[in-house]
């Protein structure tokens, strides 16, 4: 079993971007092991389609905090023909809490 | 902090937290080569950590949190194989050891609340055997640039806090590069095994 980050608290920074320039091919099916992702109080302007949160496989994700950012779009796919649930934390069947207030 | 102890048995533990201690960590502790526990947290110690820290090969717990220690943490700390927990939080430290991947037993590493200008780094290969479960880098004035060399290591640690810093870009590509490498290696090994199996080897 490869050890990876499971609980990431990156709140209260000035994060405007989660960089995944390697692209969808690299992250295709990549199993993120993050169960708690705290990103509140940053400068994120979008979350979901087209960024890290729309890549890979988030099968153990339980809690996400995106509150107090600059989010203008959230879970919104760039391509309107694509279903929402395949563009935001794909595979996140354990997700039980998303905080996204104050955006 | 005067230390004048004439003892015959080797000194293995120094525990004096919350004792209003002032001054530097005494250099005489350098002679305690069998030291396993050093707990001087919650005092008012000043100055830098002793450069002889690499001599404490049997050290398992270093607790110096909530003091006024400054300067760089000596690189020697990063090579201590028995250390399980390090608490250097709430000091005035400015640099971590060049690498902490030689601390193969390290479980908890807390350096929060320090004005760090330089973090540790380590290649995927060097850090392959790291077994850390928690690292706390919150409130350390860390930027995207200072964080970058340490990101591959952070990607392998289950509990990571980089809260309340000055990070503007969180680079997942770098953070997970070691994990990607291991997945690719594991897949290649599996494929080679399957090929060998299909050839009856």
TL;DR?
The complex is a heterodimer of chains A (103) and B (201). With 103 residues, chain A is mainly β. Chain A has one helix at residues 24-27; strands spanning 7-9, 17-19, 36-38, 46-47, 63-65, 73-74, 97-99.
Q: Could you tell me how far the N terminus lies from the C terminus of chain B, measured between alpha carbons in angstroms?
A: 67 Å
Poorly predicted segments of chain B? none
Count of individual beta strands of chain A: 7
Secondary-structure-based class of chain A equals mainly beta
Tell me the CATH topology of chain B: Leucine-rich repeat, LRR (right-handed beta-alpha superhelix)
Number of helices of chain B: 4
**Uncertain stretches of chain A:** none
Structure, explained:
The complex is a heterodimer of chains A (103) and B (201). With 103 residues, chain A is mainly beta. Chain A has one domain. Chain A is 4% helix and 18% strand. In chain A, strands 1-3-5-7 form a four-stranded parallel beta sheet, with no helix packed on it. Chain A has a two-stranded parallel sheet with strand order 4-6. Chain B is an alpha/beta fold and 201 residues long. The longest helix of chain B is centred in the C-terminal third of the chain and has 22 residues, at 177-198. The radius of gyration of chain B is 20 Å and the shape is globular. The relative contact order of chain B is 0.10. The model of chain B has no long low-confidence stretch (mean pLDDT 91). The A-B interface holds A 2-22, 26, 30, 38, 43, 52 and B 131, 138, 154-173, 175-176, 179-180, 182-183, 186. Strand 1 (7-9) of chain A pairs parallel with strand 11 of chain B.
């Amino acid at each position: 079993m490869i050890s990876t980050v499971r609980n990431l608290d990156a709140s209260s920074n000035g994060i405007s971007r989660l960089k995944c320039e390697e692209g969808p091919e690299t992250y295709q099916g990549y199993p993120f092991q993050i169960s708690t992702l705290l990103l509140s109080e940053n400068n994120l302007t979008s979350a979901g389609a087209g960024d890290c949160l729309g890549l890979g496989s988030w099968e153990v994700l339980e809690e996400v905090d995106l509150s107090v950012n600059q989010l203008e779009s959230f879970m919104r796919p760039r391509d309107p023909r694509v279903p929402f649930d395949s563009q935001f934390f794909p595979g996140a069947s354990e997700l039980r809490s998303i905080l996204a207030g104050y955006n | 902090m005067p230390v004048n102890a004439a003892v015959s048995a080797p000194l293995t533990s120094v525990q004096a937290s919350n004792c209003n201690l002032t001054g530097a960590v005494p250099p005489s502790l350098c002679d305690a080569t069998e030291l396993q526990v050093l707990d001087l947290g919650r005092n008012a110690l000043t100055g830098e950590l002793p450069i002889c820290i690499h001599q404490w090969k049997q050290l398992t717990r270093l607790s110096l949190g909530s003091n006024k220690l400054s300067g760089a943490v000596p690189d020697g700390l990063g090579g201590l194989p028995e250390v399980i927990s390090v608490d250097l939080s709430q000091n005035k430290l400015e640099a971590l050891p060049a690498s902490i991947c030689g601390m193969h037993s390290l479980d908890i590493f807390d350096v929060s609340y320090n004005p760090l200008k330089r973090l540790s780094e380590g290649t995927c290969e060097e850090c392959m055997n790291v077994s850390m479960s928690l690292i706390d880098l919150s409130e350390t004035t860390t930027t995207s640039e200072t964080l970058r060399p340490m990101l591959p290591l952070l990607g392998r640690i289950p509990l990571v806090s980089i809260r309340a810093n000055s990070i503007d870009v969180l680079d997942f590509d770098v953070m997970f590069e070691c994990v990607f490498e291991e997945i690719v290696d594991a897949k290649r090994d599996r494929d080679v095994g399957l090929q060998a199996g299909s050839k009856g080897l």
